[in-house]
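User: structure tokens for this one?
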Amino acid sequence: MAVQPKLKDFPRIRRAVTFYRVASIITGVLLLLLCTEMILKYTPIGLELELGGAQGFLALVPVGTVTAVNLSTGVLIVHGWFYVVYLASDIHLWSLMRWPFTRFVLIALGGVIPFLSFFLEARIAREVTAYLAEREAQAAADQQSVEAAH
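Assistant:
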């Protein structure tokens, strides 16, 4: 029998799921922005996103001609650091739910494979919520049978 989460940890698990969902969505959006930036920069299009340069407040400029704030690099850095936050939320939920390590690896891939974080976010949240409801109903039924026996 697999080790199951403790009933006393259920409130912590609910908070962990909420944190995971928020981190998952933010990481997914940043990953899509990063993919868009990579396509713009490393294909024959050859453009970078510049903030506050000579071309205006926000402009696409040829690679290597950025004179102001390079938002392309900014997206890369922000996604990298937020992926660390995403992994922290993943580790926290994984440890509370007592899942196998392969489950952790699958969820961690959500931050590096485009669109995967959105699918996993919905699936994981649905599974955890259903699991918690089932375990709480089972605990309530067990409690009632114990009280009826006395």
